[in-house]
């Protein structure tokens, strides 16, 4: 008999819940990944992606909690912690045109619109430009103090494509606007957690369990300030669900604490 193949090694990734206050409460920026994507195609997700080897360049100016503090939060070494924070900032700019950076003396860059900024965003996407290069050219520092740890999920070993994903929360900087510019999404916009979860239950907004669960956590907060003031345990314990199926065919993701997330089959054409 052939021995079973070992589980795929999870790729390190960062995801960002980009937040703003709206008339109905906290709103989060969501994207629907294009259906042709090899991972989570057609699913609603947050901004995010895998760590780039160049994330966390040694010459990167930095304001806020350093690598050691983030390493404690995520339970990893300092080099990886630095890469994860940089990946979160880079992906937010690449996928939403929002830059969590500013002068080293303080503040956040108020406007990143215009053709020159767009050319640099495109250069990041094609890997012609590293995040450290962009910030150096602009005379800016990465603002790690604008990010807060929110959750940590690891794709189960049964999956062929796996990610070890750190979830960050960040407020939309004053003066900046999130844009629908991600080449990996065919739809993007703002929604309250409650509205997104209602669409999920109706089968019109397919989502993976980490998105469903973190939206449920987000729905408990009255405003963005409360989200960012939260103090998660250090380190954040990673969540890796298992799966089960009822006798009636309903499938569930089961979290380590026993929480069950119903897996909703999308409506035809969604």
Q: What would your notes on this structure say?
A:
- The chain contains 7 helices and 13 strands.
- The protein has 270 residues and is of the alpha+beta class.
- The chain has a single domain, classed as Nucleoside Triphosphate Pyrophosphohydrolase.
- Residues 9-213 form the Nudix hydrolase domain.
- It comes from Klenkia marina.
Write the layout of secondary structure elements.
Elements: E1 11-22, E2 25-33, E3 44-45, E4 47-50, E5 62-63, H1 67-74, H2 78-96, E6 101-102, H3 115-125, H4 131-138, E7 141-143, E8 147-154, E9 163-171, E10 185-192, H5 193-202, H6 209-218, H7 224-229, E11 242-245, E12 251-254, E13 260-262
Parallel strand pairs: 1-9, 5-7
Antiparallel strand pairs: 1-2, 1-4, 2-3, 2-10, 6-7, 8-9, 11-12, 12-13
Helix pairs in contact: 1-2, 5-6
Domain Nudix hydrolase: 9-213
Organism: Klenkia marina
Keywords: Hydrolase, Magnesium, Manganese, Metal-binding
